[in-house]
Write a structure and sequence with these properties.
With about 240 residues, this protein is an alpha+beta fold. The protein is about 50% helix and about 20% strand. The protein contains nine helices and seven strands, in the order αααααααααβββββββ. A hairpin with a 2-residue loop joins strand 6 and strand 7. Helix 2 packs antiparallel against helix 5, helix 2 crosses helix 6 and helix 2 packs across helix 7. The termini are far apart.
Amino acid sequence: MGKISSDILKKIERENIKPIPRCSFVLKNSFLWSLFGLNILFGSVGLAISIYLFESSDILNLILSVNDFIEVLILAIPVIWIVLTAIFLIVGYLNFRYTERGYALSFPKILMINILAILIFGILLHSSSVSERLNSVFSDSIPTYNKIVDPRYRIWSRPEQGYLAGEVLSTDRKENGTVNSVKMRDLQQNLWSVDVSEAKVRRAVSLESGEEIKVIGNVVDSDTFKASEILPWEGKGRKMQGNHP
């Protein structure tokens, strides 16, 4: 034992080995914990926005009204945000395992900690409407965000399948004041005459000029659409982004 200690001391003197300052370990550990926390935060944001976009696609409203529910369900999944959430989850796991106590935990435990943290904070962010506000910020700041990320722009840009959305430009009313039809510009900037005379109009929809709506129905001809149901673009009145000329 004494010989081993002596050899170690000689090696330290020979190679001029110096102890690493404690502050280096503290800084490294703090850095890793910060990265872990940031990845949990970003993962939670990704999950919250995914939930928000999925709900905003009106999947629950479409369950009983469409025959291609599986197709609509697939289209409604905000793939990019889900992929980003998964990436943040993996990076968060990798950071955590190299923290002071992370090495002592098994892979399933670390993964479960990450998943639970993202689920809890993601649901909290969504419940407090932070996800809606963040999605609005991304919509305003990134020109192509909506068409690439927001699944509503895929679901409600298929008039041939019965899904149309856009901005009401003008209304045609009967003598009694009820709306007979509306002129609408869809998400692809095409103009439509939408017959709403027999449509079920949701309470949140007023069919006023400038309002954004989603319409379920069928194509009559190249620029005419007969509506069976009209829904608000978004229950809380959020405007469409990047579609006005």
